[in-house]
Every structure is written in C-alpha cells, then in structure tokens.
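Bench notes, afternoon.
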Amino acid sequence: MSNIATDKNKIRLQKSLIDLETWCNTWRVKLNAAKSQLILFNRDRDNSKFSLTLFGNIIKPQKTATLLGFDFDQHMTLKNQISKIQKKVLTRINLLKMLRGRTWGANTHTLLNLYKSYIRPVIEYGSVLTADVSKSNMNKLQILQNKALRVITQRPYDTPIKELQELCNIQMIKDRLIQLKSNSLQRFGNSELMQELVSQNPHFNFPDISS
C-alpha cells in the first residue's frame, strides 16, 4: 500500500470516527475509547506513524488485537488464535480422560457426545477464518481431534486415524471447518443487512460459495 493510499484511508477512517462521536453525543452513548484497538493488516510496513483519534484518545496500531475472544495478528497468520485453541482443547481432553477412567467411567457414546458439545466447538470457533489457515496450523487442529478420538475409542495407539474417524462418524477438521464456513457465508449472504449492502454497492462481490 502506497503512502498516498495510506493517507487516504487514514482520512476516511478518522472521518468515520468523528461521525461516531457525533452519533454518541447525540444519543448520549458512552464509549470507552481507551479500550479501542487498531490493527493494520499488511506486510512488513512501518505503521508507527499511523494513528487515529477517538474522543481525544490517540489510538495507535498494535501487532495483535482481540475481538469477541478471537485473536488477530497483522499478517493474519492466526498463530496466536491457534495456540489459544490448543491450550483450551488439551485441558478439556484431560477432563475427557478423567471421565473415561480405566476400569470404569463414561461409555464411548457419552464421551463422543461430550466431545461434540464441549470440545469440538472450541476448535470450530471462528471457522470463517480458521478454515483457511496454513497447512501446519490446520495440522495442529487435526492433532487435537486425533487425541480426543483416541481417548474416546480407547483403541491401540497405532490405529489409523481414518479408522477412528469412521468409527465415530467424524469428519476431518479441515472438511468440518470448510463446511461451517460455507454455511456461515450462506447465512450472511441471505441476511437483510447483506442484501441492503449489496443493493447500495452494486460493485460489491460476495464470495462465491457454490463450488
């Protein structure tokens, strides 16, 4: 992105923030400007001079930002988000082991339902973005599911993953995330808000999810 384009974007963003301030003042809505985050998605640029102002607070670019519990980084590698998922899921898999026990505990059906309702949703969160992570990061997510399936089925460690997935009727994580992403985009595309945006912006191209 050229410096001219950067300056134009800064002007447009600042104008939007001024409009937001006006709206808040009109309707007596209070915002905690100090908690506002600014992140620029680009490649190896010096963003130190780029800043915005909201209610007198200077907002400077950060390398990472969190929105609704999802961690973004300026290069969109989602590395921090994947690490967060790993830690949370491994903790829950340990709980799965405790519930399974060795000579007693929950049966396979119960453990599988627990995985689907308590553990897999953590992996699925933000699927619109995580469906497109790098191969190495996707492999990390798949390994988490593999660990859970081994605990659930109690099959020998050398049992092929494909066999465990067929036994539990579970998709590969990548296939699952792609399916969820497609479903989400379909819902977004059919929403009244999206239809209004498209009607107001005839050049807007919504992602093709037919394939």
